[in-house]
Each structure stands twice: as C-alpha cells, then as structure tokens.
Amino acid sequence: MRRFVPTLFALALLATGCGDRSLILTVNVLSFLDPAQVSAGYSAPGGLPAVTADMVDQTVNLLQGVDDVTDISSATLDIAATLDNQTGTATGSLLFYAVPSDTLSPFASVPIASIPISLTPGTITNVSTRVSSLALAEALVSDRARIGIRISLDTSATPALQSVQGTETLTQLLATVVTKKKI
Question: pTM score, two decimals?
C-alpha cells in the first residue's frame, strides 16, 4: 500500500502538467445568498408602466488571487426562478446583476441576464435561461462580488387602486467560469 501512494501522487502531478491548463470554477451563487433573499415577496402598485423591486443585493466573498494568475476564457450562468403571483397582472423581466466590487451598486451596471416574465392572478410562473457573459466572469474571479436580483414590471394592466403581489423564489444560480493560466 505504501508503494501505491507515491505512485498515485506522481500520476496526479503528471496529470496536472498535461492538457490546456484550464481552471474551471463552478460557483453555486445561490448558496452564497441569505436564505431570506432566496425567496421574497414582491408588491407593486397597479396602473404603472415601470416599477422595480430589488429582491437581492448582497456581497459574496470568493477565491482570492484567481484573477492574478489566470486569463478568462468564458463564463456562463444558469438562472431559474419561480414567481407565485397572487394578485394583479403584469409583464416585465427578472434581472440578474454582478459586479466585481462591493463598493458599487450592482443595479448601476448592465444586467447580465434578463428573463421575460408574465404574471397573472393565482398563477405560478417558472422561468429560466442560460447566458454567457464576460462581465459575469470578471465579477466571479475577483476577491469579492456584489450580486443583485431585480424584478422590473409593467403593471398597466392592473387597475390603479389594486396591486401586483406575489413571491419570487430563486431555484438556480449556477455560474461556470473557464480560465487559462497566464503565460
């Protein structure tokens, strides 16, 4: 058995020297969020063409030094959510933001993902998408990232004295970043 351990170690070292020297980071962003932000209620007054509700605004600590030793090749984000709408009718978007610094508001940047939503009373709506984004990669290889989720709604179809209300639950936020060793 003692002979087997050094041989296994040598094979592992040899294997790390082969290939295209990619570092693949899979980040379950959902696991970094406060549980109270994974599922949250929304309420928007009716009769308005543009209403926003910020559901998540949180800083997450990531691996230090990744951006110092690697170049970004690609990044993808799989995002999914369930919207359980109780009252009112609206259309709009579920927006995902990420910035590489906790000093900036994520909502001051361009959204990384925008998923169209359509809400009707008493209906559960499931939405999902996959996006590729260099901005996502830059945020996730930094030491800290600030994540934001926003719902943007057009509530014009709901009378002014009523509201659009429900619960938004994030079911997936999975990011994959592929980097290469800096030469």
Answer: 0.81
